[in-house]
Design a protein that fits this description.
- The chain is an alpha+beta fold and about 270 residues long.
- About 40% of the residues lie in helices and about 20% in strands.
- The chain has five helices and ten strands; from the N terminus they run ααααββββββββββα.
- It is elongated.
Length: about 270
């Protein structure tokens, strides 16, 4: 009876905790991982979930063996001496050594596989953007003949420093807004001519440093239409907190309208 009461109390507390934190099924399934808005982010979510499953399985086995040893191999009244030892038992010691290496090997394989997928650069991305970090904002230049204006210059979105207390504010005009099409490969060429910055869009679950004198590159395929906040994730100076921007993921038709509008010199 005491055990049943304890079980009921634990269940009630667990339900209360779930309700208090507003955990829905999707949040529980992600195991604390943000909701990804890119194909690469979804791959990393799968790796995160697989690592948790492996950790839970190993934890259950280890704790099960510990509890089993405590319950069934404890010293009993009237017994003398030590219980049977497995030290110098070659097969058992080989098992103890091999199992951790197998676990590490499996985790390494999936990590290396997904890292190669996330960092892969395609030969012909659908959209290529030069991302230029400067003190204290961002500039986005669309590369390629399809994004050239009549005078031959590229479509360019140049930001002005924003107020540091409004990463999610409504002052859209102050932030540079990078517009990209959904379900297309987007190449980012990261450049800086002053100090190290870091290009970070939390919803894409990916960030990369912007290093002076070196062009860092990566690709993403956005999967969800919406407007996502971005910021510099590297402390770059006194007004680091003002380096805010947005990435607006739109349909292909909306993106075509945006390009046509920029070519004609209209407002974004």
């Amino acid at each position: 009876m005491r055990g049943r009461r304890a079980l009921r109390s634990a269940t009630a507390l667990a339900l209360l905790a779930m309700a208090a934190t507003a955990c829905d099924a999707e949040e529980l399934k992600r195991l604390g991982y943000p909701d990804p808005a890119s194909e690469q982010g979804e791959r990393m979510l799968s790796l995160w979930q697989g690592s948790w499953i492996a950790a839970i399985v190993i934890g259950v086995i280890v704790w099960g063996l510990i509890i089993w040893a405590v319950l069934f191999h404890r010293k009993r009244k009237g017994t003398e001496g030590l219980p049977l030892q497995v030290r110098y038992n070659l097969p058992v010691e080989m098992l103890y050594t091999a199992v951790p290496f197998v676990i590490i090997g499996v985790l390494f394989f999936y990590t290396a596989r997904d890292e190669a997928y996330v960092t892969k650069l395609s030969d012909k991305p659908d959209v290529t953007v030069d991302v230029i970090g400067y003190q204290w904002s961002w500039q986005f230049d669309y590369l390629g003949d399809a994004f050239k204006k009549a005078d031959g210059s590229p479509i360019s979105i140049v930001g002005t420093p924003t107020s540091p207390d409004a990463p999610g504010g409504t002052a859209q005009g102050e932030k540079p807004v990078l517009v990209v099409p959904v379900d297309k490969s987007i190449r980012f060429n990261l450049k800086s001519d002053n100090v190290i910055h870091s290009f970070w869009v939390p919803a894409f679950i990916y960030k990369k440093d912007v290093v002076p004198g070196y062009v860092n590159k990566f690709e993403l395929r956005p999967t969800k239409i919406g407007t996502y906040e971005g910021r510099c994730a590297e402390f770059c100076g006194v007004d680091h907190s003002r380096m805010l921007f947005q990435v607006k993921v739109v349909s292909q038709a909306e993106f075509n309208d945006f390009v046509a509008q920029q070519k004609s010199g209209g407002a974004q």
